[in-house]
Structures are given as C-alpha cells and as structure tokens.
Design brief:
Length: about 800
C-alpha cells in the first residue's frame, strides 16, 4: 500500500500532469472492492475516515457532478480536483497506520509523522472548498477572503508539492519500523524492493532530463551501481528504461531547451534586482545544465536541429549582502522553514543508517548523505528554490539508503525488540480507537486545532503587511506553453509599489507611445521640480506569486542634466512649463518636454503592462511616480488579448488643468469636483504628451485594470496585451485571438475600434467586457502638432463646428443622431 502511494506520487511529480492522482483514485476503488470481497482484508473504517470522505464528496464530487449536469467541459483541472483529496486521504491513512504500529517509535519519529499527518489534513481542507465552508471561515476569521485568504495562502505553502515528500518520508519510516520489528517484514520488503527500485530509476531518468542538476546525475549513477550489485536482471531492466528515456529525450530536445531557458534563466531579473551577480565558476560546478548547454552548442549537435539561445545567467551570489537579502526575504515563508526542518530530520535518519552498514554500502550511504546535504543547501540558496523533479531524485537516494540497510549482511537488530509480527505485517492493520479521548486522537486533535489557529490569521511568525505572502501559484495553474504563465514563475518583488506617503508631484513623466514591441525604443519625458539625480526602474506587472511585479531594467540619471521642464498639481497648478502650449479654442494642452531617456524594449520582455517607476534621489519626503507602458506582441496568437483603455485614462487626465470633463483652477475644484463643466471651459481635445494626474502617474490602471490582470496571470491564462490606441490603429489584429477582453473603464472608443470589434465578433472572436460604461463615447484619435499619429484624443460631445472629422462624429454611441447602440 505504502509502495503504491509512493510510486503514484513520484509519477505525479515527474510528469507534472498528475497521472498519479488517477492511479491513486483507482487504488481507492480497489481498496473498497477488496474490503467487501475479501474477508481477510483488515481495513477498519473510523469516524475520522468518514469525515474525510464527506469532505471529499462535498468539495469535489458535487462540483464535478454539477459541471456534468450543466454540460460543461470536464477539464484536467477538474479531474485533479477530484483525485487530489483522495490522494491526501490515502497519505493520511499511511500516517495513521504508522502511528498505530505496535513498536515504540522514537519521539522524533512520532513528531515527524504527526507533522506529515497535519500536512495531509490541511491539504484536504484546502481543496474541499464547498459552499458553507467559506461562510463558516468568515464567521471566525474576518480576514478570510476567497482568493487572497491567509488560510489558503499558508495551507498552500505547506501543502503545495509536499504530498510527494510526505508519502516518501512516511514510506521510509514504515520501512525502518518494519526492519526493527520483524525479520519476516525484512524478507517481504526485500522481495518487493526490486520492483519499487525499477520504477524509481526509470522515473528518475526522466527527471534527469528535466532538472539536469549535478547531484541528480550522480544520484542516478549511484542508483545503477547499486542496482548492478543487488541484481543483474534489475540493472539490465533499468538500463533499458534509460535507453528509452534517452531516445525520447533526444526527440524532445527543443522542449528541453525551452525548459532550460525558463528553469535556469528566470533568475536574471532577480539577480539584477537584489544586486546578485552571475558567477561563472559557481555555475560551472553546481549546475549540470551548463555542461548540457556546452554539449548542445557543439557543432555536432546541429544534426539534431538544435539552435539554442542561452542568454540567461545562472544565479549565484556575488556578495554577502545579496545572500542576506534573499535569506531575509525567505525568512518569513513558512514553507521554507518546513523544508529546512524536513531536510535536517531526513539527513539525521540517513546518518543513522550510515552507522549501521559496513563495507562498500557504508561508502555509498556516505556519498548519499553528502549529496543530500549539498542539494539541500543549494536549494535554500538558489533563486528558484527547488523543483518538484529534484525531489524524486533526492527521495530515491533516501529510499536506496534504507534499502541498503535492509540488505546489508552486517545488519544488527536493535537491543530492544518487540515480538515478531505475522508474515502479513505489511497489510494495513485495523485502526480502532478504544475511547473518544485516546492519547493519539487527543494529540492529533490538539495539533489540528493549534495549526488551524495559526493559519487562520494569527500570523505570529511574521507580519503579512511587511513581508510578501507565501507563493500560492499552484502547479495546476502553470502552462509552460503560455508565455505569460511561464513569466509569472519568475522571482517577483513588491518594490514596484511607491513608498507610503510619497510625493507624486516632485517628479513626473510620460512616454512617447502608449505601447511598444520588442526592440522598439520609447522616449521618456521626465521633469523634476529642481535639479536632482533620479532612478528609472521598469517593472512588469502581473501575479508573481502575490508580489505583483518583476524588475526588468533600471537606470540612473545623474543630477548634471537640468530636468525642470514643468510641474502640475491641483494644489499649485501648472508651474514652470515654458514649453507647454494650449489651444485657445479646444484647450488642448501639450507639454512639449525634451526627451530625458530612451527606453529600449528588451527582446526577452513578455507582453504585458509595465510601470516605469521614477525615484528622485535625496528628496524628503520620498518623491516617486509612475509612467505606464504596454508591451505588445503583434505576432502572438494567444488565447485572449487584453486591451488597456488608455483613451479613457486620457479623457479623465486633468494634468495641466484640463480634461474632457473639467477645467480645474485650484485644489478645491478637484476636491469638490466643481471645476468648469461647460463646453467653453472643459477641453475638447486632450494630449497624450503629458503625465497622468491620476494614479501617481499610472492613470486609472491601479484603480481598475490591475486587478483583472493579476487574476488572469495568477490563473495561468494564455494572454497578450494591447491598448485602445492600437485596437483603433490595427483592429484586424484582434482576429488573431479567440477572446478580446475590455477591462476597467473603457468608455472612449473610435469608430475604427467599434467596427473592428463588430467584425471580430462576426468572425467568431468572443468579446468580454470586464468593466462598465464601455464604449459610451465615440471619439477620434489625431496626430499631434509634431505629426505623431494617435497622440491627441478628440471628443466634442456636442454638435458644434469642428466636431465632425473625416472618420466620425464625436457623440455618445447612444445618441439618436448617431444610433450606434
């Protein structure tokens, strides 16, 4: 039973598609059948089992049944949702059986088993989120929210990926216990061990092709040496499996290269962000992928059609401060602490095994201990922590060490032995609770209550408002084929946010384009109230495990260049803008600033919404603001395209005193929304050549659109980004996607936008409007006085001379004179 759980969990972790869940579901069915068909099968159902099965039924089977009845597509995620709790339930049974074994386990072993049991319990509670549970949680934990819950955050931190470790650790403990309690158990395990080892080694060859760590490679070599010593037939079988895996690996070489670029290259921005510099020497000796890349880059590799592009540094630590920053960041993450605790406990067990075996086996276990210790250390210090594939290799080493202990000729029984068990010792014993307050039951219940209190919002181990929340991006949300999904696996940061109480008027700026593509250079126009140095940091906004952004580029502008080109705030009005021009008839205000910086879009930048953060040096209070920019991918055929409503941003932008709604003369107008509202006072044309007054320079992005974008990228959707300006200029580009999403407040459309979206809908493109007041006004985009297209938004809103242009009338789409509902 434990071996089957272990093998299934290993398969699940390696392949990533969770076939192990389906296998475990089948195992559960077999257990039920055997329970009623075979009378000698001693599987006792306890009240706790009934409770878990009810959770599984309410949390997974009922929603799945509802989906079937509603005719919805049964996705892989739904099947995983069904199989996942069953897996946790089976793991829980393993823990419970281990706790009920007749031998007197060491105190530390019992602690391990209790912790693993609690992890399994949390896993079931986390997944079984059916109606009623959330209301119950809200009653006791007001901070609970469906998507951003501390409970879900912390439970996922404990559970995500740990089912593999929990199953293997429990299995190893069961092996140790059987060795200590019965000779017959040794014989039974010995006969079954060969087949388990075959499965391990076959799976680990595949893991080797995906993780490619040096220690993993050594682990596989040691596994084959051990297999050859134990059983020649076993060795031949595993070598055959390796051959099949290698042939398959060569066929999948382009896929492996893509994985390498993601897995080992994602730390580049994190390195820049934390001042961590690549170290070639460290990379050469700690990452097998460097050797693999060298082989692929050899001219002979071109026969396989390999044309890799390895422009990503491997993360290493160039200074003590860098290592300190990374460890400080991880210090508040519970799952890291759990990882370290488990690593220490497991190393302790391997060290004990090393003392028991002699001869060549002693050296093998010593090597295994060393590899494990080095890997655990690297995992803690490496930027991407650890991958699920590595655990199969490392846990295999642990199981091999136990197998050596089992097979050694010099094995000595412990001084104190309990009575030998029956030959069927590995059969699951019945679990009977003699009283409702049995000692084990009390211990487990107390642990559940304490852990529930901790994850429910107590937050004693860290301040959630000062440190980022633990990662919650489940593997079920990850799609390697979706660039935005892969992008969000990178090392994120919350440093994109402005400092609390920052002065957002001292430094202001705008971009020379609403969007850009890879390789394009976008001019940035920046002004400060006095001559100071400042920093430019470019962040891509997404989910990034809850941190919300990733640093892509930074630059420092020294104070030698005079950047005092003008400034506006509602309190002071427009000051010092000698280059600003205003048309008397339309109130069109253009800043006409000189270019301050040329931002080149990197070739590796993923399509998305980017915020350019401006930070003035040596200014008190802190002076910071934003410049928004969308990076497009015009060649993308993503499932959906999201349009940022920059036309509406500009319509409400009152920088300089004018918007399409008002003319502000002082701060009281802004506070009371009492600026000039009449046709003669407000602007009929507004320019993109000025900073945004809203959102600290980000327009309305931080009010509306950011929430949809974070949700889409957290959920792993295949998405690309554009703007209302680009949809107006190239409406046919929408036809490259299956879904068009309008987010936030998308009020101002051009006729080209409207007609283009109607054609897209007729062609089968789904249109989604995730906001309100969409498409209310029809406006038009015109060039600025320098001849740059789409830099002026025109919307007269009434029929007056000049309100008609070559393309359309600027009236509401509901206006009877226009009749465009």
């Amino acid at each position: 039973f434990a071996g089957a759980v272990l093998t299934a969990a290993t398969a699940r972790g390696i392949v990533g598609l969770k076939p192990g869940d389906l296998l475990l579901s089948g195992m559960a069915g077999l257990l039920v059948v055997r329970r009623f068909v075979r009378k000698d099968f001693s599987f006792a159902v306890t009240p706790i089992d009934v409770g878990f099965m009810l959770l599984i039924l309410a949390g997974t089977l009922l929603p799945l049944l509802k989906a079937v009845l509603e005719g919805l597509y049964i996705s892989k995620e739904m099947l995983n949702a069904l199989a996942g709790p069953i897996e946790y339930f089976l793991l829980y049974r393993v823990m419970l059986e281990a706790l009920s074994l007749p031998s007197k386990l060491p105190t530390m072993t019992r602690v391990i088993l209790v912790v693993l049991s609690l992890i399994s319990i949390i896993g079931v509670l986390q997944i079984a989120r059916f109606p009623g549970v959330e209301d119950f949680l809200l009653t006791f934990f007001p901070t609970y929210e469906t998507a951003e819950s501390p409970i879900i955050h912390r439970a996922t931190s404990l559970v995500g990926g740990w089912e593999i470790l929990a199953a293997v650790a429990a299995y190893v403990i069961l092996l140790i216990n059987q060795i200590q309690t019965t000779d017959e158990g040794v014989k039974t395990l010995g006969r079954r061990w060969n087949w388990i080892l075959i499965g391990f080694l076959a799976f680990n060859v595949i893991a080797l092709l995906s993780t490619l760590s040096t220690a993993g490679f050594i682990a596989i070599v040691l596994g084959y040496v051990l297999a050859w010593r134990l059983n020649g037939k076993l060795a031949r079988t595993t070598l055959y499996a390796m051959g099949v895996a290698v042939v398959g690996g060569l066929a999948l070489t382009p896929v492996i290269i893509e994985r390498l670029q993601y897995q080992f290259g994602k730390a580049a921005a994190g390195a820049t962000q934390h001042g961590i510099v690549p170290n070639t020497w460290v990379a050469r000796w700690t990452h097998w992928d460097v050797v693999f890349q060298t082989v692929l880059l050899h001219p002979s590799s071109l026969i396989f059609g390999v044309q890799p592009n390895f422009n990503y540094p491997v993360l290493a630590f160039g200074s003590t401060e860098s290592l300190y920053l990374l460890l400080l960041y991880r210090g508040g993450l519970l799952y890291v602490a759990a990882f370290v605790a488990f690593a220490v406990i497991l190393l302790r067990h391997i060290w004990q095994i090393r003392k028991k075996v002699n001869g060549f086996n002693h050296h093998i276990v010593t090597a295994i201990f060393t590899i494990l210790a080095v890997n655990f250390a690297i995992d803690v210090l490496d930027a991407h922590f650890f991958s699920a594939g590595e655990w199969q290799i490392l846990m295999t080493l642990i199981a091999i060490a136990v197998g050596l202990e089992l097979r050694t000729d010099n094995f000595e029984q412990p001084p104190t032995r309990v009575a030998a068990a029956a030959p069927t010792a590995m059969r699951i014993p019945a679990v009977r609770l003699p009283a409702s307050w049995d000692s084990r039951f009390r211990m487990g219940l107390a642990g559940v209550l304490v852990l529930t209190a901790l994850v429910g919002g107590a937050g004693w181990f860290r301040d959630r408002h000062q440190l980022p929340p633990p990662p919650v991006l489940s593997i079920s949300y990850y799609d390697a084929a979706a660039p935005t999904s892969a992008e969000n696996q990178n090392f994120g940061t919350d440093a994109w946010q402005l400092a609390s109480g920052a002065d957002t008027h001292f430094i202001q700026g705008y971009a020379g384009a609403a969007s850009a593509i890879k390789g394009q250079t976008v001019p940035l126009y920046i002004s400060t109230q006095r001559k100071v140095a400042y920093d430019i940091q470019v962040y891509r906004i997404g989910w990034y495990r809850g941190l919300g952004g990733r640093l892509l580029q930074s630059a420092h502008i020294d104070g030698s260049q005079d950047q005092t080109q003008g400034n506006w705030s509602a309190q002071t009005g427009l000051q010092g803008c000698a280059t600003c021009t205003t048309q008397a008839d339309t109130h069109l205000l253009d800043a006409h600033w000189q270019q301050s910086y040329a931002l080149t879009i990197g070739n590796s930048w993923t399509t998305g919404v980017y915020l350019v953060k401006l930070h003035a040096d040596g200014v008190s209070p802190v002076a910071e603001s934003y410049i928004p920019l969308v990076v497009r991918d015009d060649a993308s055929t993503s499932d959906m395209v999201v349009s940022l409503p920059v036309n509406t941003y500009q319509a409400y932008n009152v920088w300089g005193g004018y918007s399409l709604y008002t003319h502000l003369t002082d701060a009281s107008d802004l506070a009371n929304d009492e600026g000039g509202q009449s046709f003669n006072e407000r602007a009929r044309k507004v320019s993109f050549n000025r900073p945004y007054s809203e959102g600290a320079g980000a327009g309305n992005f931080l009010d509306w659109d950011i929430h949809t974008i974070r949700w889409l990228e957290r959920s792993g959707y295949d998405v690309s980004y554009t703007t209302s300006v680009d949809v107006s200029a190239q409406p046919a580009a929408v036809l490259h996607h299956g879904i068009y999403l309008s987010t936030g407040h998308d009020e101002y459309w051009t006729l080209a936008m409207r007609d283009g979206l109607e054609r897209a809908r007729a062609a089968g493109v789904s249109l989604g409007f995730f906001g309100a007041n969409d498409g209310y006004w029809q406006a038009r985009l015109e060039e600025d006085d320098a001849g740059t297209a789409s830099r002026t938004l025109t919307c007269y809103k009434v029929l007056t001379p000049g309100s008609e242009g070559s393309d359309a009338t600027t009236l509401p789409n509901l206006d009877p004179d226009y009749s465009k509902p």
